[in-house]
Amino acid sequence: MAVARYYEDQWPAYVSVAERRRNAEREVAKLRKQGTVVSPVKVEGNKIASTFWGKAWCSNLESYRDYESRLPRGRTYVRNGSVIDLRISAHEVIAMVSGSSVYNVKITVGAVPKALWKSICADCSGGIDSLVELLQGRFSKGVMERICRQGTGLFPKPSEIRFSCSCPDGASMCKHVAAVMYGVGTRLDAQPELLFRLRAVSENDLVADIGNVLPMSKQGP
Question: Above 60 in pLDDT, residue 16?
Answer without folding.
Answer: yes
